Amino acid sequence: MQENRKKARSKISQSEQLQQERHDARREYKVSRGWFRIVLFLFIGTVFYILFFSDFMRITTTAVTGTNVLTEAEIKQVMQAELDDKLLGVIPRNTFPFVVPQLIEQKLTETFRRIDSVEVKSVFPNTLTATITEHDAVLVWCRDHGKTDCYMIDRNGATYERVDWSSPDIVQNDQVTIIDEKGYDVVLNDTVLSPEYVDQLMHVRGAMGRASGILFDDDILVPSRISNEARLTTQEGWYILVGLDHSLEKTERTVTTFFDKTAFDKPREELEYVDVRIGEKVFYRFKGDPVESDDEESSEEAQKEGKEMINDDGEDASKKE
After folding, report:
1. 202 and 244 Cβ atoms separated by less than 8 Å
2. 90 and 221 belong to one structural domain
C-alpha cells in the first residue's frame, strides 16, 4: 500500500517537474524570441541608418579622368546634380547601393555632345568615378562661305556639335575647315563624310604644300559630300583641284614632278588653276586664256582646255589642241 502511494507521489512529482520544465522552456523561448526581435530591430535600424543617414556609404568623392576640352568641374556638376536627385521622390541617390551608373552616363552624354563615350563606376563605400573619352575633333564643316553654320567633325565623319569659334578646339589647334559649296543641311550626330574622306581632307593641304612649295589658304572647298574632290586656294590667288579618290602620296609625287619639270610661259601668279583630279596627269590654265567651253568644272573639259598635261615621270603627255 505504502509502495503504491510512493509510486503515485513519484508520478505526480515527475509530472509536476515535466510541467515546470515545459514552462521554463516556453519562458526561455519567449525571452529568446524577444531578444531576437530586439536584435533584429536594432540590426534593421542600423542598416536603415547607414543607408539613409550615415556618411559611411554616402558618395562624398567624385573623380573624373580623360577630359581634354571639357573640364572636370562641369562634369562633376552634372554628376552631383544626379546624386542630389531622389529615386521615387523619396530615396536619396547619393548613397552607394542606390547609385545607378547607367543613368549618370546617359545624363552626361545628353548634356555634353563632345563626349564620345563615358564609363561611370561606383567604388565602395563612397566614391564615384567617370572616365571620359571625348570626340577627336579633326575637321570643321561649314555650310556657307561666311562660316555662320559650322560643325565639328570627328574621325568617323560625324558631326557632334556646332562650332564655337572661341573654343579651345579652334583657338589652340590648326583645324582644317571644309566649306560645302552645295550647302546641304547638317544634322547633329549625322555622318557627313566617310572616314577615308576625312583622312584625305585632313592631309591634302599639307601634301600639296610639300609638293608645290606654295602656301594655301586655310579653307578647303568641296563640291559636295560625296564628290571626293577638294579645291585649295593658293595665297598667290589661283587654286588647285585635287581628286581624293587617289592616294595622296601618288598625287603629291605628281604635283612635285609637275612644278619641277614645267617651264611656264607666264608668271606662275597668273595661273587660274592647276587640276590634278585625273590620276597621274596635270592640267592647268592661265587667267585670260581662251576657253572652249563654259563648263570648267568637269575633268573632261579640263582635259580639253588644259594648257599642258604632265605625267608623274615629268614627260609632256599632251598639248592643248
Report:
1. no
2. no
Residue 227: exposed, middle, or buried by beta-carbon count in 10 A (0-12, 13-18, 19+)?
middle
Cα separation, 145 vs 292, in Å, equals 29
90 and 189 housed in the same domain: no
Which residues are CB-neighbours of 125 under 8 A, at least 6 positions away?
56, 57, 96
- Asked which of 119-133, 139-153, 155-169, 255-269 is least confident by mean pLDDT, the reply is 155-169
Q: Answer yes or no: are the C-beta atoms of 233 and 239 closer than 8 Å.
A: yes
Total number of domains constituting the chain: 3
Sign of the torsion angle spanned by Cα atoms 33, 34, 35, 39: positive
Q: Where in the chain does DSSP place strands (E)?
A: 61-65, 86-87, 91-92, 115-123, 127-134, 139-142, 150-153, 159-162, 176-180, 216-222, 229-234, 239-243, 271-276, 283-286, 308-310, 316-319
- The Cα-based distances of 199 to 205, 232, 265 in angstroms read 11, 16, 36
- Separation of alpha carbons 223 and 229, rounded Å: 7
Q: Domain end: 134, 156, 176, which one?
A: 134
pLDDT in tens, 249-303: 999 999 999 999 999 999 999 999 999 998 788 999 999 888 654 444 444 444 4
Same domain, 176 and 291: yes
| Residue that is last in its domain, among 112, 134, 156 | 134
- pTM (2 d.p.): 0.64
List the domain range (segments joined by +) for residue 116.
61-134
- 104 and 156 belong to one structural domain: no
